[in-house]
Amino acid sequence: MVHKAWRRRLGGRARAGWALAVLGLLFPAAATGAATAADPAAAAGPARVVREVRAGDRMLDVAVSSPSLDAPSKWVRLLLPKGWTKNTSRTWPTLWMLHGGGGNHTDWTRNTHIEELAAARDAVVVLPETSGCSNYSDWHNHGRWGAPAWETYLMDELRPLLEREYRADPRRAAVGGLSMGGHGALTLTAKHPGAFRAAASYSGYVNPLYRSPDGGPHGPDAVKVGGGLVCLTDWKRIWGEPGYPFDTTDPKDVRQRWLWERNSSLHQAAGLKGIPLHLFYANGTDTGPGWKWGDPPAPASRCNDPAAHGPELVERTIFGMNGQLRAKLKKLGIPATVCASTGIHTWPYWERELVVSYPMLMRAIGA
């Protein structure tokens, strides 16, 4: 289905290597609204809990069923603060952390020390599972809409469910994400005023309509390869076709470009006004993060603002996209903490930035 807020308005070898690199935009492992109603009961939706599994002393995995999903259920991992219980009238602020392409609800806990970060704060960390090519959006499905409707599920169903059953505060939430999840974090924030008080994007896929100026992958290539190789489906189901200048030479042939723009952090950037932002991206040159878990937060000197991209095609493309977003934010007068550095599309860089940005995210939600 179209998200509720919009339903009303709508009435060779080198080529193979390139495809694998594009896959990394949506599959990082291959590369190494309105604010919710104050009364959660009033916002009850069709999503329901079908199973709970304790994955640790302060880690709870929740299986959620919804007609908006393309599977019987999807998992949500919750990192719980000390003293958390369902049986109380108080609520806790939440930090949503979104996985990249090909990932799931376990990615952040398997690849970073986010559990240790969360343990020191009085907040719930929400790690939702979507699909390997969800793009955190409602799918076009050749004009039929319907499932999967990831934006509807996350914002209209899962969020009120967490408020209703797991004591999530309806007014204090922040969001972050990597790669495809970085796109999700910024785009959902921009499209749902008041939903999130801060957002962080780590190597985010922020412009699906990006056109490489020098022969690298274009933005739509990630959707094509992600849909076909990760989700094993027709990529046109996601947002339709982007139109000119991709796959057509006719400037008048724009096809479903409106939907690609609707789901672009770059094109929705005006909606980020007034939101504390952390934007990290690298240039595709692997110099090492210069930091490891247990070190003090990395200094500002890590952000060496490279003038040009390096050889790794995935982060090289991310470098171009985020440079455009950075310029757009500046033009709009929207401040952001930006860190552009040497690096590639992989976890050590993202964990470094998570540690640096975590205090800002926590301050925004009063944790």
TrEMBL record:
Highest taxon listed in the record's lineage: Bacteria
One Pfam family named in its UniProt record: Esterase
Keyword Hydrolase found: yes
Signal peptide positions (record): 1-37
GO molecular function: hydrolase activity
UniProt keywords, alphabetically: Hydrolase, Signal
Name of the protein this chain belongs to: Alpha/beta hydrolase family protein
Origin organism lineage: Bacteria, Bacillati, Actinomycetota, Actinomycetes, Kitasatosporales
